């Protein structure tokens, strides 16, 4: 049995899967706000509850914002700031009495879609999150690739090609892709041009009668096509799967592939752009699949770097 946990800022979701991927149990609880020890206890409580009810011991995988630094073994870059600087995998492992695998939530999303979702059986899958932030994960041959710095797929904090340097990002850089392709970015642009506050998903619904909404979404699609073209030129994935709230905008799946060929260095584009299959459950399901059946590695790097490779 596998247990996956999606650790979010407001909720913790856990799921138990059998060896075929069938869901045996699922539960959500609120994330204890700002309380690290209570968060550990909540996760451990869900695991113990499932194991007691199902009378099976499970592997445990956790999807979390941020990632484990290979240089310190501590969580970094998490918007759930209580996690930063903590050895979350080790602390959970001690509490549960077994190893625990952790991965970035975007990596878990990509893995779930590659295992049995929209990109099932594809050799190379790039999973994209277009939500409050912009993230990504890369799965090759059923393995999440994280790289020696644990930043594979972090395309949201690369500069958007063609941008003018006018937007500052919280990360300290300018014109990051996230500043143009996140849900809040789309909403801010519509508010600037129309003077109306609307959630990003509703803006897409107004394009038939609202010229401003139409123009804003057209610019969004062109920017997404340009940004994904950079990924395709480097990674050349079989499938790009969209997740997050803006993945529900139907026209993106027609418009973006029509536009991206302008920036892709090829005489044709075989890469498929797909809507996610698992929806909001992608992260928790992918966390469960961090432990494959045979017990082998599911990422290209496991554990902190040896001392000889740590920064001094």
- Mean pLDDT, nearest integer? 91
Q: Would you list the SSEs in sequence order as H and E?
A: EEEHEEEHEHEEEHHHHEHEH
Q: Spans of 5+ residues with little confidence (pLDDT < 50)?
A: 303-312
Q: Level of helix content?
A: 25-40%
The shape, in one word, is: globular
* Range of strand content: 15-25%
Q: How many beta-strand segments?
A: 12
- Tell me the Rg in angstroms: 20 Å
Largest sheet: 5 strands, mixed
State the secondary-structure class.
alpha/beta
Query: Helical element count?
Result: 9
Distance between the termini: 41 Å
Strand order of the largest sheet: 3-2-1-4-7
Key attributes of the depicted protein:
312 residues, 9 helices, 33% helix, five-stranded mixed β-sheet, alpha/beta, disordered C terminus, 12 strands
Description:
The longest helix is centred in the C-terminal third of the chain and has 25 residues, at 211-235. This protein has helices at 36-54, 88-96, 105-116, 178-181, 183-194, 200-205, 211-235, 252-260, 282-288, and strands at residues 2-7, 11-17, 23-30, 59-64, 67-68, 75-76, 101-104, 124-130, 134-140, 143-145, 239-243, 272-275. The chain is α/β, with parallel strands linked by helices and 312 residues long. The model is unreliable at 303-312 (pLDDT under 50). It is built from 9 helices and 12 strands. 33% of the residues lie in helices and 20% in strands. The protein is globular and about 55 Å long. Helix 1 crosses helix 2 (88-96) and helix 5 (183-194) runs antiparallel to helix 7 (211-235). A hairpin with a 6-residue loop joins strand 5 (67-68) and strand 6 (75-76). The strands form 3 sheets. A 5-stranded mixed sheet has the order 3-2-1-4-7.
